[in-house]
Design brief:
mainly alpha; disordered N terminus; disordered C terminus
Length: 426
């Protein structure tokens, strides 16, 4: 009898355990996928989650290794240059001699161009100032060249459109630099003038764009980043920031992502994450930026490529621009969680002594030069290969990233947040 009763009880317990397991399985299947918590413990991927890193921290670590190898010799460039330096420096993960390598390449570039990074596009100087600031180097004395001084010419700073004053403001505020003195006869740059220029470019109803009257995600996010330090001091800046945040929230997709023309991109998500972190807003948990299927941080991490790097779009491959921006956005988020200064607030960086860069030796003469034949005259009688001829050489000193500078899908990002040296609107 006792054996029979025990057997009956065991069957009942087994049936109850099976029923409980089925209920739990059903509940899990009906629950929404988890969003990325502040500790990075869970991640909601739109793509195959099993093939992706498990947390933003793992993505960050993998991209450090990938970026360090892919951009091993950073130069003066919107891809494979300053943004990689800034991200790695602000993450305290600079490879050995990385700072010296970048500084040497910058000095050589300045010597080759007699100190002129670009004749009219002064975001080139803003980007370089940010990189130097992240390393603790003095931008006013780069082997005798002053990379900060061009930002004193207010009209030239603003020539490119609103991204000019945005990045000049970010650069000046990175380590509290005084606005440089404008050249004689030029309008003097001041912080208030730069803030006013950004505010005056706001679109009716909120938000910013490089052109037109429709808010652009990237430009709006970058404008918010530049205005963040002035939220407490200027009521007009604070009001514009709130309008901009409302616009960004309204432009966010249900999957948590951002992008123009209905296609989410990692770069747009990255710029929003940077802006929110600059304002002290958690992009993983603020209800304005957590939609039905996840947060903007979830959306950014969904572009991560296993093994390191980021894609530009969901069905793309690893991309240089996307990798650099996705990486420094995660660095901005990590700094927010750690209570550190924001990505572009480099007041915590200790001043460093810049390395000595000796002049390049004159090339030795060729002891047995091959004579070059005179070119045959063209039918018009003019020499062939005029000013419009296209050179066939590849850019030197770059790896994978150099080949992606002209990628059609990244054109808008090159023109805006990447501060390209080749696109007139940058």
């Amino acid at each position: 009898m006792t054996t029979r009763n025990n057997t009956r009880r065991e069957r009942v317990v087994a049936r109850r355990a099976l029923a409980a397991a089925l209920v739990l399985a059903l509940a899990c299947s009906l629950s929404p996928a988890p969003s990325l918590a502040n500790d990075g413990s869970a991640l909601n991927f739109d793509s195959d989650a099993s093939a992706a890193p498990a947390s933003y921290g793992e993505i960050l670590a993998q991209t450090v290794a990938y970026l360090s190898a892919s951009v091993s010799d950073p130069g003066v460039s919107s891809i494979g240059g300053e943004w990689a330096v800034i991200g790695l420096a602000r993450n305290d993960s600079l490879p050995a001699d990385y700072a010296a390598s970048y500084y040497t390449n910058l000095v050589r570039t300045l010597r080759d161009t007699d100190g002129v990074l670009h004749r009219v596009k002064y975001t080139e100087y803003s980007r370089v100032v940010l990189a130097l600031s992240s390393l603790g180097f003095d931008p006013t004395d780069v082997a005798g060249y002053d990379a900060l001084s061009p930002l004193g010419d207010f009209d030239q700073v603003c020539w490119q459109g609103v991204n000019g004053p945005i990045w000049a403001l970010i650069a000046l505020d990175s380590r509290g630099y005084d606005a440089p003195t404008a050249p004689e006869g030029k309008r003097q740059t001041t912080r208030d003038a730069l803030v006013d220029a950004v505010l005056d470019s706001e679109i009716a109803g909120g938000g910013w764009a490089l052109s037109g009257s429709v808010p652009d995600v990237d430009m709006t996010a970058m404008a918010l980043t530049s205005l963040a330090p002035y939220r407490g001091a200027r009521a007009d800046a604070a009001a514009a920031i709130e309008r901009g945040l409302s616009v960004l929230s309204s432009l966010q997709g249900e999957g948590g992502g951002f992008g123009d023309a209905g296609s989410a991109t990692s770069e747009s998500c990255a710029q929003v994450v940077v802006a929110l972190a600059s304002l002290g807003i958690d992009p993983a948990s603020d209800e304005r930026f957590v939609k039905e299927s996840g947060s903007v941080l979830d959306a950014l991490c969904a572009f991560a490529v296993p093994g390191g790097g980021f894609k530009h779009v969901a069905d793309g491959e690893v991309n240089g621009m996307a990798t650099e921006q996705g990486f420094y956005a995660l660095v901005a988020y990590e700094r927010l969680l750690s209570g550190k200064t924001s990505l572009f607030d480099m007041s915590d960086v200790a001043s460093a002594v810049s390395p000595d860069v000796p002049p390049d030796p004159d090339p030795a003469p060729d002891p047995d030069p091959i004579p070059t034949p005179d070119p045959e005259p063209s039918p018009s009688g003019k020499p062939s290969g005029g000013a419009g001829a296209q050179g066939g050489g590849a850019p030197s000193g770059k790896t994978l990233f150099a080949a992606q500078t002209a990628a059609p899908s990244g054109e808008k990002m090159v023109a805006t947040s990447s501060l390209s040296s080749e696109v007139a609107s940058s």
